């Protein structure tokens, strides 16, 4: 490239409706660039982008591309790895030698000249990065941010501040995307093997993270959950819950009046009280890593404490839709066995006497195959399970791997395989317990109609 990414006039996105892609689209749109793009289907995100001035269409057709975006010298084409290589528009732009970049490459270019605060790890990236961005935005530091979910505080997945030197980035390990970033500081929340369809095995997965942390600025910080083994040239710090050996520890965790209350001990101080505005033990872990990073870059205890208390969370991450004495409805993005474990641990701590009713949609045939035993162990901890068909996303079916196969491994009396529409019918009789929709596919389409059904159940129950 012979000029900066923001100096281009036209940006064309292939897969513009993705959560990461849409954040970039909004970023360039905020600089008054001409943003257009393709996606397979219309969604809430594409509707929002169109209302914000982006031009979007849903046919892989060359005639749909705006003429302005065919000016090679002024156009950047950005694509997601989820798009197949034979995509017509992608093939055309490559054949004509346009500047064609992956989403992660563009993020790398944007953050190269800022101080990038990155959050990597197989769990907790989105919530933790949203926390950091929210706390910073409440101080003189300010920041820009690229998030993998819709922050409730910002009502967006992107935050743009043209005057701040800080940029918060969710560092995605899928397709080794995070290797394009230049972190000033980074948190690593977890390294439970995932995306083995990309990495092949556990060893290469771990190697990817090792390569990533070696990219952290030597004057910055690598902040990892205790037990993760990584080598870095930067400063190094560990955190954990109820630990006497980590550099930072969260202790005496309690759920009080809708808040998570906990006390932090470090090498420098003991017993600093924090309150977190969203529930869950896993979110205390996320908040603790956030506290460490923000302290290391210079924020004060009152600034961090105030910001965490006002944090409202991220949509689809322990997202509470109904909360009454008898009935609750929570939507969550968990799609890995360890994420399920953390979710269930939190639920059992917060609601020890309530029945847990899970509607779970497995995500990817390969992930279901790789972690079938681990998934079945966690799903067996619910009181009642409705298992949906596997959401294939970018994958083709793997013979022998199905939701029927997974359900057969679950040790639970009240379990059944159902289609999404059938679940809505079955939930019409549910008037108590904690109902959960869980998964990273299109299970979020059930949230609104299920919310209406359960709300009616409350009305009829009164």
DSSP summary, beta strand count? 21
Shape: globular
Q: What level of helicity do the residues show?
A: 25-40%
**What is the name of the CATH topology of the largest domain?**
UDP-N-acetylmuramoyl-L-alanine:D-glutamate ligase
Structural class, judged by helices and strands? alpha/beta
Main pleated-sheet profile: 10 strands, mixed
Oligomer: single chain
Number of helices: 15
Q: How many structural domains?
A: 3
Strand content: 15-25%
Unreliably modeled segments: none
Which CATH architecture of the largest domain? 3-Layer(aba) Sandwich
CATH level 4 superfamily of the largest domain: Mur-like, catalytic domain
Amino- and carboxy-terminal Cα gap: 65 Å
- Strand order across the biggest sheet? 8-7-9-6-10-11-12-13-14-15
Walk me through this protein's architecture.
- By secondary structure, this protein is an alpha/beta fold.
- It has three domains: 8-102, NAD(P)-binding Rossmann-like Domain (Rossmann fold), CATH 3.40.50.720; 112-309, Mur-like, catalytic domain (UDP-N-acetylmuramoyl-L-alanine:D-glutamate ligase, 3-Layer(aba) Sandwich); 319-461, Alpha-Beta Complex (Protein-Tyrosine Phosphatase, Chain A), CATH 3.90.190.
- The protein is 32% helix and 25% strand.
- It is built from 15 helices and 21 strands.
- The chain has helices at 19-30, 44-51, 88-95, 103-111, 125-137, 196-199, 202-213, 281-296, 301-309, 337-350, 365-370, 372-379, 403-408, 420-426, 447-461; strands at 10-14, 34-38, 55-57, 75-79, 99-102, 115-120, 144-151, 156-159, 166-170, 183-188, 221-225, 235-241, 248-256, 259-266, 272-276, 319-323, 327-332, 356-360, 384-387, 415-417, 433-438.
- Strands 8-7-9-6-10-11-12-13-14-15 form a ten-stranded mixed sheet, with helices on both faces.
- The longest helix has 16 residues, at 281-296.
- The protein is globular.
- The mean pLDDT is 93.
């Amino acid at each position: 490239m012979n000029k900066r990414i923001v100096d281009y006039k036209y940006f064309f996105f292939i897969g513009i409706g993705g959560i990461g892609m849409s954040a970039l689209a909004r970023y360039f749109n905020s600089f008054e660039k001409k943003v257009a793009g393709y996606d397979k289907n219309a969604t809430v995100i594409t509707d929002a982008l169109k209302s914000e001035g982006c031009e979007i269409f849903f046919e892989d057709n060359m005639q749909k591309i705006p003429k302005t975006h065919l000016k090679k010298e002024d156009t950047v084409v950005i694509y997601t790895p989820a798009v197949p290589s034979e995509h017509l528009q992608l093939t055309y732009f490559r054949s004509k030698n346009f500047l064609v970049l992956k989403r992660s490459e563009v993020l790398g270019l944007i953050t190269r000249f800022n101080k990038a605060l990155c959050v990597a790890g197989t769990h907790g990236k989105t919530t933790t990065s949203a926390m950091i961005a929210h706390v910073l935005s409440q101080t003189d530091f300010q920041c820009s941010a690229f998030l993998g979910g819709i922050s409730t505080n910002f009502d967006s997945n992107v935050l743009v501040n043209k005057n701040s030197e800080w940029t918060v980035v969710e560092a995605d390990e899928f397709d080794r995307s995070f290797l394009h970033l230049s972190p000033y500081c980074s948190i690593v929340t977890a390294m439970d093997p995932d995306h083995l369809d990309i990495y092949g095995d556990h060893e290469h997965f771990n190697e990817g993270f090792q390569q990533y942390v070696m990219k952290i600025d030597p004057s910055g910080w690598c902040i990892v959950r205790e037990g993760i083994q990584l080598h870095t040239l930067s400063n190094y710090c560990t955190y954990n819950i109820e630990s006497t050996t980590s550099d930072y520890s969260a202790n005496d965790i309690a759920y009080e009046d809708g808040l998570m209350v906990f006390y932090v001990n470090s090498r420098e101080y003991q017993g600093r009280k924090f309150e977190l505005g969203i529930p869950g033990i896993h979110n205390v872990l996320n908040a603790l890593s956030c506290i460490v990073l923000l302290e290391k870059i210079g924020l004060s205890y009152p600034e961090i404490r105030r910001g965490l208390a006002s944090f409202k969370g991220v949509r689809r991450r322990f997202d509470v839709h109904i909360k009454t004495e008898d009935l609750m409805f929570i939507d969550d993005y968990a799609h890995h066995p360890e994420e399920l474990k953390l979710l269930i641990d939190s639920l059992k701590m917060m609601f020890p006497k309530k029945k847990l009713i899970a509607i779970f949609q497995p995500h990817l045939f390969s992930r279901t195959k790789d972690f079938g035993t681990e998934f079945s162990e966690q799903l067996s901890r619910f009181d009642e399970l409705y298992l949906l068909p596997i959401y294939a996303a970018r994958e083709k079916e793997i013979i022998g791997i199905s939701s029927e196969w997974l359900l057969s491994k679950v040790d639970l009396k009240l379990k059944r395989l159902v289609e999404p529409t059938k679940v809505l019918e079955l939930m019409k009789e549910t008037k108590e317990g904690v109902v959960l929709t869980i998964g990273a596919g299109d299970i979020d389409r059930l949230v609104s109609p299920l919310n209406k059904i359960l709300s009616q159940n409350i009305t009829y129950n009164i």
